[in-house]
Structures are given as structure tokens and as C-alpha cells.
Amino acid sequence: MKISRVLNTNAVLSTDADGNEIVFLGSGIGFKSRPGDTVDEAKIEKRFTLSNQKQLTRFQELLDHIPSEYIFVAEQAISFAIHFYNMKLNDSIHISLADHIHNSVENARLGIQIPNSLLLDIRQYYPREYEVGQQTITFIEDKFGIRLADDECGFVAMHFVNAQYGSENTNVKKIITFVRDVNNFILKKLNVEPNEDSLFYHRYMTHLNFFAQRVAGNVHYDDNNDIELALLKKHYKKEYQVSCDVADYIKKNYKFKPNKDEIMYLTIHLAHLTQHNNL
Predict the structure, then answer these.
(1) In whole angstroms, what separates CA 90 from the centre of its chain?
(2) Are 97 and 78 in contact (CB under 8 A)?
(3) Longest C-alpha distance within the chain, in Å?
(4) 3 state SS of 224
(5) For a disulfide at 98, which of 13, 74, 143, 187, Cβ 3.0-4.6 Å?
(6) Rounded distance, CA 72 to CA 95, Å?
(7) How many C-beta atoms surround the C-beta of residue 126 within 10 A?
(8) CB burial class (10 A; 0-12, 13-18, 19+) of residue 157?
(9) What's the distance, CA 16 to chain centroid?
């Protein structure tokens, strides 16, 4: 592939056959390179696509203001999230995460530690993203010799949450609050203490997170499963009633009226949760 622009000594830009602009990162990959030169494949360490000019401009500004090492660490974390958790991330993560890591390391060097008031909630409701945050902190320590506080695991996790759901922080905080409140309401109604490490609890929490996103975006399921709902109502009376109570709770507190299909899916997850409570 041909270089279309040299971004700095360690980053160059190229274009693929579909016209997508690709950023190639590698130590010295841009050194003495010029537009029109062939990209040195042996020096490529990371590559990613930026889908629009605005993102590309922001990335160029980032390169002008922070050392490339921070971008390499961010790309390590992004690759980890994609390969180990199959996360689908939007382009913004390449910019926002590197910028955050730079600021966090600089703050740590100055002795500044910013507390994360949502840390426990993030760890509970976004376990995959929190684990990526933990691994990112390890990458940072390996590269810069600085061990950041656990609060940073939560801050990093939120970048991955935002990059998947396309939400701003304010929206994500609303989602976390919704999941926490509804989960507490459900567990109290069911009178269960589930195994939070179980597959069924993980599925249930994933459902609540997607439910929260639909509430935040005012998006409903199609409402066309009357037969299935009637069967669930017959076989899982308690779980169905709790799901109806949850629907009333959401309508009252979040101004969103869950329909019959949403009640049906929640009933299924609650049934699995109660049946496998000790697993």
C-alpha cells in the first residue's frame, strides 16, 4: 500500500481499495518517508481505520500533542478488547482512550488521583469492560512503570462502554443508574441472592443493560408474541408477576412503558435466574 500522508515518525496514513483511510503505527514507520512511498510492512505494529475526516483531524491533533507511546498502549488495549471479548468499537476509542491514558499518567506523576464514584457499579454491571480496564492498567504499568489506582479501571472501562453503545458519559451514567435500580428492585421482589459469577446472572445482566439502552433511546421491541407470553404467564407465575411489577416501576420512574414482548423476555431471564440460583 502507498503512503498518502506522513503523520509523524511513528504513524502514516494510507488508503485501501474501498477508499477507507487507514492509520499504520510502528516505530520509525514514517521516518524519512514521503507520500507515494510504499508502506514498510515490516514496521507495522498496529493498524486501524478512521471513517471520516473529522476523526482523522482529531487524531492528527492528538499526535501533535502527546507522545506516540500513549497511542501504542491504547491500541494494545483496543486489540485486547477486540480479540478476547469480540467488542465492536467505533472509531472514537482510538482518540479518546489514548488521550485519557496520557492525562491519567501525567496526573499520577503529579500525585493527582481522581476518585471514581461509579467504580463499584461499573465493575458489577460492565464486567467485561472492567476487565479490559484492568488489563489496560497493566499495559500502562509495563510501559511507563506507573501503577494507576483501581479507579482508573473504571474510567477506562467507560471508554469501552461508550465506544460500543455510541453514548456520551451522561447517557451511560443514566444506563448504570437504571440497571442498578431495576436490578435491586427485581432481586428484592424475587427474594434471591444470585451467584454473580454464574452464566445465567451474566445473561440476565446483559439483558438489563440492553434494556436500559432501549429505555434511554425510547426504543421498543416489536409487540407480537401473545401466545408465548401466555405460556410463560402459566408456567412462571411469580417471574411473570415480578416482570409486570418491573414494567410498572419503569413506567413510573423512567417514563417508558415496557410492552408485552419486553415483559416476556424479562420473564424468561428471571425464570432462568431463579431456577439456577445456586449455580
Answers:
(1) 10
(2) yes
(3) 73
(4) coil
(5) 74
(6) 11
(7) 25
(8) buried
(9) 27
Q: In the chain, what is the straight-line distance between the N-terminal and C-terminal CA atoms, in Å?
A: 52
Q: Where are the alpha helices (DSSP H) in the chain?
A: 53-65, 68-85, 92-109, 119-125, 127-144, 151-165, 169-190, 199-217, 226-235, 237-254, 260-275
Hey, what's the cell of 107?
A: 496526573
**In terms of DSSP bridges, do strands 11-15 and 21-25 run parallel, antiparallel, or are they unpaired?**
antiparallel
Which pTM value belongs to this model?
0.66
**What secondary structure letter does DSSP report for 52?**
S
Q: Between vectors from CA 35 to CA 33 and to CA 36, what angle results, nearest 5°?
A: 105
| Strands laid side by side in the 46-50 sheet | 3-8, 11-15, 21-25, 46-50
Contact at 8 Å (CB) between 147 and 141?
yes
Amino acid at 16: D
Nine-digit cell at 202? 451474566
Contact 181, 125 (CB under 8 A): no
- Evaluate whether 116 touches 122 at the Cβ level (below 8 Å): yes
**CA angle in degrees (0–180, nearest 5) for 65-71-76:** 170
